Amino acid sequence: MKIAVIGNGIVGATFVNEMLERHPNSDIVQFDGLKGTATIASAGIIAPWLSKRRNQKWYNLARQGAEFMQEMAQKYQMPKDVYLQSGVIYTRDSDDKLQSLLELAQQRIQNAPQMGDFSEVTSSQIKKLFPFIQSTSNGVFVRGGARIDGQRFIHFLNLRNQEKVQVVQAPAKITIEGQQAFVNGSNFDLVIVAAGAWLAQTLAPLGIQAQVRPQKGQLIEINLPDNQFIDHNAPVLMPEGERDFIPTNDGTLLIGATHENDQGFDLTVSAEIVKDLLASGQRIIPGLSEKAIKHVRVGTRAYTEDFAPFFGRLPQHSQILVASGLGSSGLTTGPIIGKLLVDLIDNPLLDVSHLTKPISTYVN
Ligand SMILES: Cc1cc2nc3c(=O)[nH]c(=O)nc-3n(C[C@H](O)[C@H](O)[C@H](O)COP(=O)(O)OP(=O)(O)OC[C@H]3O[C@@H](n4cnc5c(N)ncnc54)[C@H](O)[C@@H]3O)c2cc1C
């Protein structure tokens, strides 16, 4: 089967990997090449279980996504700088809030054993893990939480499959003639549009409207002050009311990220936002100065009106499958969506209604 895959973010890369696992003789051409790929800019937190979101379909998908990511990491023995089950700490500034978070954790673990063990941690225990911070409130430590490096994750899968995939570093244009789908003039049996925030513009030439909008995300990567260092196995720290703090395997710390709905596809670093991210860092880490900023990451997420991801076959064109709208938890849901697209190719009647609304909700 000849397949075009548009996009090499976490969805496109995982789809290709899963397709080749199950159908090693697939003839795949992968198109990529736009700037702002969300997966490359991302922070890397995989911990959906204590989310307050009420969308049950999203939660089902994210819970299965975190589990699938763990399975992939084990199966392919991903190195720690790609995927690390580091755990995640959430702090709360009152005992009541802490108790309700612990209750939620107790409820959620019933159907999510991959959440691992969880327990209350005191501010001094947190300080032992992060000696460079000033004291925080007490928190909950969820040990099954993980962090991934989105760019390295894609690179890992790309390397695994490089012999079997033709990569075209150019924007892809889809055309339809009769019952046949073409990408940049070549005919394909199937077209997978894993185009993230660019789904609407990729489908527009077909007269199809996708209800997906771009959301700018920025985060800063900092070196710790005074030659302090961070343990490579340190968990993610999510202090209440502050930005998230994500240790990297390079000994740096990511602080972020923003959710900017009014900036379109703009990728410029905003001085005001950097100041705001640094200020959050300074409230947690004494002595942190602007000089500590090593790099600013900027990327474009896709989001939908109900902030839910979607995926499936286009009703108008059965040879085209799409996925988008992954929003701020797309590292968590991306790999399972890549896998589910292969499930839908193998079984077009597969029921995914517990995971996503009908595709016509978002694409018409
Ligand atoms: C700053 C930031 C922090 C984040 N932190 C987290 C986090 O901690 N945890 C979490 O779970 N999620 C996080 N996310 C969200 C997550 O990164 C995204 O939801 C997810 O990576 C989206 O994956 P995707 O494959 O759908 O899209 P992308 O990764 O954006 O990939 C889309 C790809 O399609 C290509 N493309 C598009 N159109 C075309 C075309 N016409 N022709 C050729 N190529 C095309 C692009 O070049 C790109 O490679 C974060 C995102 C950002 C920006």
UniProtKB/TrEMBL annotation:
Naming one, the record's GO cellular component terms include:
cytoplasm
Q: Does the keyword Membrane apply?
A: no
Highest taxon of the lineage: Bacteria
What keywords are assigned to this protein? Flavoprotein, Oxidoreductase
Q: Which cofactor does it need?
A: FAD
Q: Which InterPro entries match?
A: FAD-dep_OxRdtase, FAD/NAD-bd_sf
* UniProt-listed Pfam families: DAO
Asked whether the UniProt record includes Oxidoreductase among its keywords, one would answer yes
Q: Which GO terms describe its molecular function?
A: oxidoreductase activity
- Gene3D superfamilies for the chain: D-Amino Acid Oxidase, subunit A, domain 2, FAD/NAD(P)-binding domain
List each copy of the FAD dependent oxidoreductase domain by range.
2-344
**Where, if anywhere, are coiled coils annotated?**
none
PANTHER family in UniProt: D-AMINO ACID DEHYDROGENASE (PTHR13847:SF286), SARCOSINE DEHYDROGENASE-RELATED (PTHR13847)
Q: To which protein family does this belong? A: Belongs to the DadA oxidoreductase family.
Protein name (database record) = Oxidoreductase
Q: Which organism is it from?
A: Pediococcus stilesii
